[in-house]
Amino acid sequence: MQCLLCQRLIQSKFSLPWLLSWRPFTRPVVCAVCWQRFKRIERRTACPGCGRDQTVPRLCPDCQRWPAERPFHNVALFTYNDAMRAYFQQYKFHGDYRLRRVFEGTMQTALHQLNGDLVLIIPVTPSTLLSRGFNQVSGWLSDGLNQPRGLQTLAREKGVPQSKKVRQDRLRTPQPFMLALAAEQIQGKRVVVIDDIYTTGRTIRHAADLLLESGAKSVTGLTLAR
Amino acid sequence: MKKSELYGRQLCLTPREAATLPADVQKITGIQVSGTRIQCMRCGEFLNPREAQLPNNQYYCYACLNLGRNSTLTSLYHIPEPNDFPQRPTCSWQGQLTVQQRTCAQRVRENFEHRHRHLLWAVTGAGKTEMLFPGLTWALQRGLRCALASPRVDVCLELAPRLQAAFVDAEIALLHGRNPAPYRYCQLTICTTHQLLRFRHAFDVLIIDEVDAFPFAANPRLYYAVNQAVKPHGALLYLTATPSQELLRQVRRGDLEISYLPLRFHQHLLPMIKVTLQPHWWQVIKRGQLPNRLRRQLARYQQTQQRFLLFVPQVAQLAAVQAAIQRALPALRGLTVHATDPDRLAKVQQMRDQRVQFLITTTILERGVTFPGIDVIVLGADDPLFSTAALVQIAGRVGRSRERPTGLVWFLAASHARTIKRAQRQIRLVNRKGRRLRDAMPVVSTIDSK
Ligand SMILES: [Zn+2]
Ligand SMILES: [Zn+2]
Ligand SMILES: [Zn+2]
C-alpha cells in the first residue's frame, strides 16, 4: 500500500497488542511521516468557542468578539498548518477525491462522539459541485456515496468564494444559507454542523444562526481544521 | 484562448471553459468507460474503479492529476497540427564534430528524413546534443515541428540555452511543471516527458533525451505519451547512455533501429568499475569510523588534492558519512548535497569553483552534472536504490576531460548485485565497440578531431 500523500510504501506492522485485541485490521492510508506533520488539537485546552489550539481553555480574542450567549461552539480536530494547507490544495483544488480517506476515520469518530440528534453539512455551490464533482465534507463521511443518509443540504447563494476574501469582507457576508427542513425536524434538537475549515467562523455561524432561529436546542460546529 | 494554443495539443477543459472555443475544435473523450475497464485517454493509465470514482458514477484520473484533473466531467480539446511556421530558422553553431560524431549526426538526419524510430546509444560524455544539430537544422528548415523531451527537468533547463544559442532565430518553448510562463505555439519545444501528455500528434520530429532516466524507465505511461505526442508518421529518436531492457527489447523486435557512439569526444574508453566487497561499511560509519580501505583512499586524496564525488544510497546517511570523514581526516574539505537540499545549486557551484575538494551525495548528481577530472566512490553500490542505469551514469562522471580522460570508479558493496554486474557488462560492451571503432580509424583523426 502506498501513502496517499507522499507515494512511499507503507509497511504495516502487526503489533502484539493489536493481535491480542482481535480488532479488525484497518490499513493505514498515509505513512507515519506524513501523519506526524498534521497537528492534532488537544480538546481539553482548546478555545471553547472556536476550537483553536491553545494552552489554556480560555475564550480566544477572535471569539470574544462574537455574541457569547448563543448555544454554539465549534470543535476543530487539527491546526491549519502547512501540511493541512497542502492537503486541502490537493484534495479540494486539484480534486484528488482519494484523499478523503486520509481523514475519514478521524472525522467519523469525532462525529460519533459528539452524538448529535441531527447532522448537517455545509454545502458547496452548485457550480463548484459540478466542476469538482464532490463535496469535500461529504467525502469524509460517506465513502463515495453522493450524500450521507439523513443529511440535508442547504442551498447557498452564488458569490465570491470564501477563500478569496479577506477577514473583514468575510465577517460582513450576508446569510448565505436557507433551510430545506421542516421546523419539527429542528425544534429542540442538538444539531451538529460540519465544515472543512474554521477560519473566521462566519460561514458556520451563519448556519448556526439559522438553525437556532428555527428552534434548535444547540448547535455544535465540527471542522477538520482551525 | 488563442487558436494556436490548441494546435497539436489535447487540453482538458470543462464544458463551460470550452464554450468560447472556435467551432472547428475537436472534442475527445477524456476517460473511456466500458464496463469495468476505465482508461484515461490522456495518459493511457487503466484506472482502478475504486480509486478513480467520484460521486454519481463519475470518474477521474489520479495518474496525471498534476496536469489538471482529467475526468468524465471534462473533455480533451484538440486542433490538428497545421505546421503554421512562417520562419525558417538556421543553425548558427560554429563548432566541429569528430569523425564519429559526424557519422552519427548523418545517421540521425537520415532517420529524421525517413521518419524512422531510432535508438542512439551514445556513451556518457560523447557530445550527444551537438550531433542533433544537423538533423534539427534540416527539419526546422522544412517547417517541421520538433520537440526535445527529457524525463528530467534539469536536463531540459540545461538544453534550452544551448539550443537557443545554436538556433538564434528559432522560437523555442520551454515547458515543465515548475515553469509558470504561459504556453506558446513554437516550432521547437523543449519539455519534460510528462508535459508530452498535453500534446496529440504534434511533432514531426520527437527526440527523447536521457530516455533511461528515472522515472521514464519505470513508467509505461510515458511511452504512451511519446506515441501520442509524435505524429503517426513522425520520426522518433531515443538518446541514451544506458538503454533499459525494454528499449533493447524493442530493438530486438525490430520496432526500433539502433546505432552506437561508443567513444567519448576525446576518443578514450570508459573507465571500468572496480568493486570491493565491504559488507559492513554502514555499521562502521555509524560508529563514527571509516572502513580501512576507504580511509586509506581518502588519505591519498588528502595528499594529492584529487577531487572526487562520494555517493551513498540514502539522504539520511549523508551526515554520518560526512562526520566520519571529518573525524578521520579533518583537513579534507567537502559538503553534502541531495535532491531537495535548498542550497543544492550553491553547493554544486562551490564544487565547480574548486572551493571544496569533494561532495557527498545521493543519486541526484549522476547525470548532467560534470566536474572535470574527478574520481567517484560509491558506498553501498549494491543498494536497490541504485539502478543499473544510475550506476553507469555515476561511473560516467569520471574521465570527462581531455586532460584527465581516465580516473577511479570504485564501488564498495555488500554483494556483487545484479545491478552492478549489468553496469559492468554495459561498460564492457561499449568499450569493446569503442576499441573496434578506434582500431578501424586512421590514426591522425583520433588525435586531432574535436
Ligand atoms: Zn507519506
Ligand atoms: Zn476561539
Ligand atoms: Zn491520466
UniProtKB/TrEMBL annotation, chain A:
Q: Which InterPro entries match?
A: ComF/GntX_DNA_util-trans, PRTase-like, PRTase_dom
Q: Which SUPFAM superfamilies match?
A: PRTase-like (SSF53271)
Q: Which residues are the signal sequence here?
A: none
Phosphoribosyltransferase domain: residues covered = 174-221
Pfam families per record: Pribosyltran (PF00156)
Database matches in CDD domains: PRTases_typeI
Family membership, please give it. Belongs to the ComF/GntX family.
UniProt xrefs under PANTHER family: DNA UTILIZATION PROTEIN YHGH
The identity of this protein, by name, is ComF family protein
TrEMBL record, chain B:
Q: Where is the Helicase C-terminal domain?
A: 293-450
What are the protein's GO molecular function terms? 3'-5' DNA helicase activity; ATP binding; DNA binding; hydrolase activity
* One GO term (biological process): DNA recombination
Name of this protein: DNA/RNA helicase
Q: What InterPro entries does the record tag this protein with?
A: Helicase/UvrB_N, Helicase_ATP-bd, Helicase_C-like, P-loop_NTPase
Helicase ATP-binding domain mapped to chain residues: 109-261
Which keywords describe this protein according to UniProt?
Answer: ATP-binding, DNA-binding, Helicase, Hydrolase, Nucleotide-binding
